[in-house]
Q: What sequence folds into this?
């Protein structure tokens, strides 16, 4: 199972918080699955403090007594802790996304260089690197294009648009069907 990154963790913490607020019973391992070891220790300390409070005082009968003593149920402790964890995760979201972007760029560079150095002919090295990037699911546009390549792409796009405008009604319909078929194939591959 893949690791949960920062972009997933906040959403999952919010889902778990909603479950707790609805009063659903959640297993301890599911509560701790989204937390890091330091957060788990803090949660356990908060629950231990409530256990000590329960041994020291009888169960309060009114809300005012609960507030004075600091009495909370396990679910209330978890809800408060999850709210703190969500705030903490959202605070570190920018750094987490930057780290993910850096990891993605590093992976792309490694894949490109592997393809580049495995190419047999000296002329094919850039192409081999770009092909390796595409096979790995990266856009080959990741590698900076030179001026000539940009001009060629623009010319190709202009030609395609011109040719499409000159198609007959039946040919346009066939082209639309072909594009829909290709989209369906791409969805199936994912």
A:
């Amino acid at each position: 199972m893949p690791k949960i990154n920062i972009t997933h963790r906040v959403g999952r913490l919010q889902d778990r918080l909603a479950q707790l607020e609805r009063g659903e019973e959640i297993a301890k391992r599911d509560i701790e699955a989204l937390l890091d070891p330091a957060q788990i220790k803090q949660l356990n300390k908060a629950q231990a403090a409530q256990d000590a409070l329960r041994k020291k005082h009888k169960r309060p009968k009114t809300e005012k007594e609960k507030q004075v003593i600091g009495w909370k149920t396990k679910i209330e402790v978890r809800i408060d802790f999850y709210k703190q964890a969500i705030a903490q995760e959202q605070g570190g979201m920018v750094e987490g996304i930057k780290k993910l972007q850096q990891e993605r760029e590093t992976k792309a560079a490694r894949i490109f260089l592997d393809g580049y150095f495995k190419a047999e002919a000296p002329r094919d090295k850039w192409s081999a690197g770009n092909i390796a990037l595409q096979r790995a699911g990266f856009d080959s546009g990741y590698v900076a294009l030179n001026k000539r390549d940009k001009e060629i792409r623009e010319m190709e796009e202009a030609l395609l648009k011109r040719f499409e405008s000159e198609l007959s009604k039946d040919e346009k319909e066939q082209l639309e069907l072909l594009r829909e078929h290709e989209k369906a194939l791409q969805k199936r591959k994912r």
Summary: Residues 70 and 145 are 63 Å apart (CA to CA). The first helix runs from residue 6 to 22. The mean pLDDT is 83.
